[in-house]
Amino acid sequence: MQVRHRLTRSFCAVAIAFGSAAALMPVLSAHAEGWSIGSSRITGSGKVEKQSRALSNYSSVSVGVPANVELIQDNTEGLTIETDDNLLAQIETVAEHGELKIRTVKRNLNLDTKTLNIVIHLKNIERVNLGGSGTISAGKLHASNMNVNLGGNGTVDFKALEAGKLDVALGGTGGLKLAGNVNSMSVAVGGAGKFDAGNLKAGSVDIAIGGSASMTVAARDKLSLTVAGSGDVGYYGDPQISKTVVGLGSLKRLGAFPQ
């Protein structure tokens, strides 16, 4: 009965990992390298312009275009888009139900450009969704609870995140690099991405891997690992460890908990 319980727990964790990742895909546009997949394509003029847009009342950001996005948390809201002048009208930005959505005006519309930069100002941050080949980066971010969902082959880089609870869903082949401090962190992996959080000091860490992943974390008190695919996890610290592996997986201590 104990073995069956562990197996059930493992496969449940995998289902959560795949489910969290799959939930992103219908919402966010998928873009391959080169930004050339879809039913139609618009090529940029080469004349780059900046456009500011007034938006408010959002604490969640969903990006469905292959842009370089920078988040700035301060006392203002709104965003600035820098791209070819003929592409600005093809990018829709709406804030509804607390969520800022950035997407093309038509589904499966591909933007052929060398420049697509977006700077977003926000007062509060609770959730970040990225589906595609873009990047989302930030310096200082503060949140009570934070959710990060990566469903494509893009990257997320948060250099100084302060949060009570952090939930991460990695469903593609992208990468996350996180630094800062959190009380607890839960990571569900259903793809084949890279997760670098060796400089994110966490009290407790819960990891469920249902795909193939390379991960680095820092856990002070507790570290729970469930693997039903293949995953290599390195950790810093001396936490209490709970491990269930059905498949291929490794867990290796890399050093002391970061100061």
UniProtKB/TrEMBL annotation:
Residue stretches making up the Putative auto-transporter adhesin head GIN domain: 57-239
Keyword Signal: yes
InterPro entries assigned: DUF2807
Key words, A-Z: Signal
Gene3D superfamilies (alphabetical): 2.160.20.120
Signal peptide: 1-32
Domain of life, source organism: Bacteria
Lineage of producing organism: Bacteria, Pseudomonadati, Pseudomonadota, Betaproteobacteria, Burkholderiales
Protein name (record): DUF2807 domain-containing protein
Keyword presence, Protein biosynthesis: no
